[in-house]
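Students often ask what a holo structure prediction actually looks like on paper. The answer is less mysterious than it sounds. You provide the chain, you provide the ligand, and the output is a string of discrete structure tokens encoding the 3D arrangement of the protein together with nicotinamide-adenine-dinucleotide.
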Amino acid sequence: MPQSRLRVAIVGCGAIAELGHLPAARQVDEVALVGVVDSDRARAEALAARFRVPRAAASLAEVADATDAVILATPPHVRPALAAEAFAAGLHVLCEKPLANSSAECQEILRAAAGARRVLAVAHTYRFFPNRQRVQALLRQGALGRVRQVEVEEGTPTEWPTRTGYTFRRELVSGGVLLNLGIHSLDALFWWFGHPVEALYQDDAVGGLESNARIRLRFAEDVVATVRLSRTCRLANRIRVEGEAGALTLPVYDQLQLTEEWGSKAVTRKVAGGKSGVVRVVAAQLRDFAESIAARRPPAATGADGLRVVQFIEQCYAAKRARPLPARAPIPGVTW
Ligand SMILES: NC(=O)c1ccc[n+]([C@@H]2O[C@H](COP(=O)([O-])OP(=O)(O)OC[C@H]3O[C@@H](n4cnc5c(N)ncnc54)[C@H](O)[C@@H]3O)[C@@H](O)[C@H]2O)c1
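The corresponding structure tokens follow.
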């Protein structure tokens, strides 16, 4: 193994580790995957055997000495403690989303990263979708002229095969569909248009975690975005950005397809070769993380990006709490 490869351990051997981080690490030459960690040691050992990872452990402390960086792929409630431990051991951290369950915890993680002078990257994976990157480039060039309207519709009945069921468990997460799914599209909108100047948030929770949510956002220069999210209904799963000079439409779950409309001409094409898939973008994310460490430059999604979106989501929940609950509970998925 060449000395220059970044020695990485994955902490949390659940669905995203198995379907994303483990297969992706094999494709990234800049990285050597040296260990997998899970509080369920048997699970770590099973994945280590299957993906031929040298070490399996039940705690980060067991692998830290032979590691340069960690991917924190646990549910969010344990991330502040794990991040603190990793930075104290001098490791760089790529943290799954949400960075943490609250903005206070995110700030704690950012302070630990700054104190240790280590890279903190956040898995805001949409930034690595080639069609999202093309939208970003066209917006930066001003190709659409003044952007008038953005629509995001993202929803399917939940089918992600978690081991812990964290996203439905109040003791592990601070929010439902907005925090778990909406975070990706919100981060993409903030990346494209900056921080919103106004937001109106609604969801279907009546004391529990929301499964459906709607947000109306206004950005600088009067760009208005509507976001509809669901984990109970199948929605259009489409993003549309309309400007005075053209419009862009992209499917939420396809990483490559983009329809560009210029005047009366609409062209749908793949913006990059290869296949759309989780491993592709998770590998791009890991490559960016390794390069950011080697080149001493910020990663594509920084700790500050992770904090910003959690802070925004927290404000949405606070605004919701300040309003009275409806007299009759909405039926999830029907009224939304
Ligand atoms: N970026 C993306 O597109 C994407 C996609 C899916 C999931 N995620 C995020 O990844 C995280 C994990 O999701 P998942 O679906 O893989 O969860 P999961 O429930 O399938 O797995 C979590 C694993 O973490 C382990 N774990 C819990 N506490 C631990 C600790 N203290 N130390 C070591 N291991 C511990 C559990 O035993 C379990 O194996 C979540 O925050 C989720 O939001 C991100």
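The chain has a mean pLDDT of 95.
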